[in-house]
Amino acid sequence: MLRKFTLVALLMSSVSLAMAQDEPLAISGSVDTYYKYDFANVANIATSFASDHNSVSLGMLDLALKKTTGKASFVGELSFGPRGQSQSIPDADAAGSSFNIQNLYASYAFSDKFSMTAGYMGTFVGYEVISPVGNFNYSTSYLFTNGPFQNAGIKANLALSDKVGVMVGLFNDWNVYSDNNGVSDFGAQLSLSPAEGWSAYLNVVTGKPSGTILDLTTSYQITDKFKLGLNLADYDAATTGGFSGGALYAQYGVIGVRAESFKAKAGSGYTFIAADESVLGLTFSANLKSGGLTFIPEFRIDNGSADMFVKEDGSATKSASQFSLSAVYAF
Questions:
Q1: What secondary structure, in 3-state letters, does 94-125 show?
Q2: Is the separation of the CB atoms in 205 and 125 below 8 Å?
Q3: Could you tell me how many helices (H) and strands (E) the chain has, helices first?
């Protein structure tokens, strides 16, 4: 699934229900756990989540509530555990803080084509999402890790036709509940459905001090078993630097691969990636399902343009590899 699952899909489902009878409170969510082993015997690849080495570790418990009454609806999503707290939520685990909110927003459908939403929302930028249920791979991409996670603000959605939609909104800086700089970002999305099974999203978020990120996300369910996805992004920081990159996703049946290229621009460094350096990542995953439970065995190898990883003896090296086995239960 695209990252749009948390923001757009939930919203559009709310809009479609708005013209119908009141709906009962819907409860959904997931739990996940994982084991990961880095072949250098140290924690090495610094993307979001699944960061523990040689340990059976927790992901998160995710609980989502959704309710529609007439033309109004709300979504509230709470998370508990490392993936849903300190690793993805601003100010989580800070002194006196108990925020574990992934989504908290309300929507009103003025018609079946136009609606407005306000609150704290999972970002509309990018291919991957925080919840492992929305991703085929368990480990995440560099594009996901370094892009926005949440956009708090107010937005308007307009369906121009069955195949074209537009969203525009005003937002806080990335990943903050409240913004000392005020509502400083403008965001927009053009959504397209060129053919059955094919969706595409052109996204932009721009402002100070956030900078400007341009993003293309698309997926095509070519057959019942074969799906292709693509994410391209370019980020210019407000002062200097930024990043650029792309990730290709291919899935056939229970097997999937992600191939990613990520480059830090001159003036900006990221974890393990110095300014003007790049990394190539290749991730192979399988999704083995039984009811609501999905087992995800995964092998990943990343190769840098410079010595950005470490060997078992502590010396620097250009490459790192890891294996993980995760269990994700969705309800």
A1: CCCCCCCEEEEEEEEECCCCEEEEEEEEECCC
A2: yes
A3: 3, 19
Q: Phi, psi (5° rounding) for residue 25?
A: -60, 125
Name which of 39, 43, 41, 59 is nearest 51 in CA terms. 43
What is the rounded CA–CA span in Å between residue 143 and residue 71?
36
Alpha carbon separation from 110 to 10, 19, 25, 113, 153 (Å, rounded): 17, 10, 21, 8, 19
pLDDT per residue over 125-153, tens digit each? 999 999 999 999 999 999 999 999 999 99
3-state secondary structure of 40: coil
What's the Cα-to-Cα distance from 99 to each of 10, 46, 86, 185, 321, rounded to whole Å? 22, 24, 10, 23, 34
3-state SS, residue 82: helix
Contacts of the segment 259-263: beta carbons below 8 A, 24+ positions apart:
259/283, 260/141, 260/142, 260/143, 262/141, 262/142, 262/143, 262/146
In CATH terms, the superfamily for domain 4-330 is: Porin (2.40.160.10)
* pLDDT-wise least confident of 30-39, 86-95, 286-295: 86-95
pTM value is: 0.89
Domain parsing of the chain, residue ranges: 4-330
In contact, 278 and 272? CB cutoff 8 Å = no
